[in-house]
Amino acid sequence: MNIIEKQTALTKSLYEINSNTLKALFELQKNNVSAYIETNRTFGEKLPEIKSVETLMGVQKEYGTALWSNAKGAFQAQNDIVKEALTEAKSAVTHAYGQEQVEQAPVVAKKAKAKPKAKAKTKAKAKTAAA
């Protein structure tokens, strides 16, 4: 395979990976919005049943816990989708260029921080008053 064919195959693979990832992220967001609406509807139905402050506090605690649980699950699912996309992209690049070329790629070293210049020590001379 020549370099142009490899580039074309890599571009096609990366396009498919990106398309699938975005589709999965949009589907996840759609499900998250549906879950949020369902959570609000469920707890909205409980509002007429509230007769005391204690009950209100309990419902608010349940609502907060449900929202946190949904958000935590959504972030974890999103994280998993992105990790999978990165793994697939790494595999596509490795396949296109071969492992030996990927390993031989130059690593850009971090620029060492320049040490601040030491200030010159000055000796204060006491002026003597001439009398």
Give the helices and strands, then pairings:
Elements: H1 3-46, H2 53-97, H3 99-103
Helix pairs in contact: 1-2
Summarize the structure.
By secondary structure, this protein is mainly α. The protein has helices at 3-46, 53-97, 99-103.
Describe the overall structure.
The protein is mostly helical and 131 residues long. 72% of the residues lie in helices and 0% in strands. The chain has helices at residues 3-46, 53-97, 99-103. Helix 1 (3-46) packs antiparallel against helix 2.
Task: Summarize this structure as a short list of keywords or feature phrases.
131 residues, mainly alpha
Query: What does the average pLDDT come to?
Result: 82
> Compute the gyration radius: what is it?
31 Å
Structural class: mainly alpha
Structure annotation, total helices = 3
Major β-sheet annotation: none
Question: Tally of extended strands?
Answer: 0
> Order of SSEs, N→C?
HHH
What percent of residues adopt helix (DSSP H or I)?
A: over 70%
Note poorly predicted spans. Answer: none
Strand coverage percent: under 5%
